[in-house]
Amino acid sequence: MRPQGSPTIRDVAKHAGVSVATVSHVLQGKSSLHAAATVERVRRSAEELSYRPNRTAQNLARRQTRTLGVVVETMTTGRFTANAFCVEVLDGILDFAGEADYQVKIVSLKCNDSQTVAQCVDNGSMDAAALIAPNSDGALVAWAQTAALPIVLVGSLPDGIDIPRVDVDDEAAILNAVRWLTELGHRHIGIITGPPTQWSAVRRENAYARALASAGLEAIASLRYAGDYTYASGQAGAAELMTADPRPTAIICGNDGVAVGALEALHRLHIRVPDEVSILGFDDHDVARWCRPQLTTIRQPFHEMGVKAAELLITAIEGGPVLRKEPIIFPGVLVRRRSTAPPPGLSAPRGARRGGSVP
Amino acid sequence: MRPQGSPTIRDVAKHAGVSVATVSHVLQGKSSLHAAATVERVRRSAEELSYRPNRTAQNLARRQTRTLGVVVETMTTGRFTANAFCVEVLDGILDFAGEADYQVKIVSLKCNDSQTVAQCVDNGSMDAAALIAPNSDGALVAWAQTAALPIVLVGSLPDGIDIPRVDVDDEAAILNAVRWLTELGHRHIGIITGPPTQWSAVRRENAYARALASAGLEAIASLRYAGDYTYASGQAGAAELMTADPRPTAIICGNDGVAVGALEALHRLHIRVPDEVSILGFDDHDVARWCRPQLTTIRQPFHEMGVKAAELLITAIEGGPVLRKEPIIFPGVLVRRRSTAPPPGLSAPRGARRGGSVP
DNA sequence: CTGAAAGCGCTTACAG
DNA sequence: CTGAAAGCGCTTACAG
Known about the structure:
2 copies of one chain form a homodimer. Chain A is of the alpha/beta class. Chain A has 14 helices and 12 strands. Chain A has helices at residues 9-16, 20-27, 36-48, 55-62, 84-99, 114-121, 139-144, 170-184, 199-214, 231-241, 256-268, 286-290, 302-317, 349-353, and strands spanning 67-73, 103-109, 128-132, 151-154, 165-169, 189-192, 224-225, 250-253, 278-280, 297-299, 328-331, 333-335. In chain A, the strands form 3 sheets. In chain A, strands 2-1-3-4-5-11 form a 6-stranded parallel sheet, with helices on both faces. Chain A has a 4-stranded parallel sheet with strand order 7-6-8-9. In chain A, strands 10-12 form a two-stranded antiparallel ribbon. The longest helix of chain A has 16 residues, at 84-99. At the A-B interface, helix 4, helix 5, strand 2, helix 11 and helix 12 of A face helix 4, helix 5, strand 2, helix 11 and helix 12 of B. Strand 2 of chain A pairs antiparallel with strand 2 (103-109) of chain B.
């Protein structure tokens, strides 16, 4: 709120010698309703007093805030930034919201109980909210299903929970990636998963299992490491997977940070990437191009997803069609770089593809 | 704003059979003023109707919004996230604000003219604002000097502009780093600067020049590349500096992203780091540990700076002492990793230090 | 201990 | 073309 001394609409009205209604009209650009001289006088008065409408008062009178909430759960990671995903989606939201003259408010949920959620989100301080990759088992998702204001979730959700959302088709992407790996000749493909509360992690793992199956391979328990999307879990995971028998010749990582951690662990073990082990990232974060070898990874259009979420929300606020339950899905694209290659002993992908019973 | 149907304080009052004043009191925790039975009744009514106070109305009545603005200029970078600095500072602000029950609103300034600034920031929708590393020549800084609401700037400013701020002592850090480099024996130290509108970049460069002078070295124009804090400028800069004569044996980079770009360019040129050229980063971003070789860099306590900024702002809002003009300075610390070493031909730092007139 | 009333700074039918 | 008045949903002296 501005300091007490700020001029109000009454001051402007008095200064211009008109009513507050007139000032309000003029300043809202409904100047066609008024005499040119009046409009001019009001404009000048506002200018001279350097009047600026109090947004809080406008909001109350208009029964809308023109602000979007961006809700992230920070209790797990501790940090908002821990997730590059969040930041890029936020950027997209900021872009679209800015164009549409909406403000954005960040809600950083430290504890995900229904009390807190209601207090922080459903308190009339925002017209709609985007939930960024919430844990699928928390109060936030539960609340969202019955929320009275428009909600869009950015990320994945278990089947059966229907909240309007925008997501990336990571299943197809993983399927694609695994197929490519098997075509290169890989038969022992490991995975370092994300945390089970992040539904995207679950879906990716499921897709991995299905891809394996459709390539006639079986999922081996010792080829799976339960990570949590952190660099550290990448390090630990890769180190552990290297002790498995059979040892994986390729590892699918939960995200690029995990992949870089894996790279580091393998480097310390003097295991060469991609000659001995292929590494596949996820996200196509800056680091994917900055690390060595550069990561083969799956690019997700985070920014666009944010833009879309904001667009959906603003459309809903402004009386557009009701938000659809069917998610809006963006494709993930496999970006082939240096961290993947045929497994040791095989060099030509073509040869490998028809190789039959390579062990 | 919440949908029309939401219960208001009047509904609760009616339901509990008391006045709205009583409901207001009780729900604000001033229950000591009331009979236990009344308190109980009000609580239950609020619960049953799942009433939640409308924050906009509270804000207007209380003449405060309990929200902090975080203002970033995005016209240069296009993206909020382009700057890791911003995100980590934001995290710190979010942390402190959350504890203090303040909300935070992001203002992403696409054009930095005084109109836009006033409209977006000084519109009564926030009680105070943190300006994150604004360009020193823009309307935002000009506005901040006369702003009616509490302002804290996070970052650097030219001398003579007095806005309360929190900053890092990058001058001392650079001085320190250059001294260390000269002690290692480096005599030709290049620099890839940041953009001149970012005052931190100017200050770092000045510190670099002074450190050179105090080591008895002269600044050579061909050893300076005008970058802009991007990866691309790191690539281009390093490539260009390698054509200089004399060729630098060490390069100070504007930030870690720039340093990684430099690493990449040198890699392509088959110039080894740190054997032939030492690279010094700035920030200690994740990538500094993720790239190869790991970067020697200067760590900045971004998160703490954000926390401090929020603390100052909230103190000011709540009637604490007026914000001091003297900046609050955090130290930057030199983190020595693998990207720096003595220049070619010199191996022992000790020997180099007293080496006298090494060319 | 409780409530009637004024007020926060706007917007918006409505009447003229 | 313009203005008086009600209202948005709260808070807060103030009186009782």
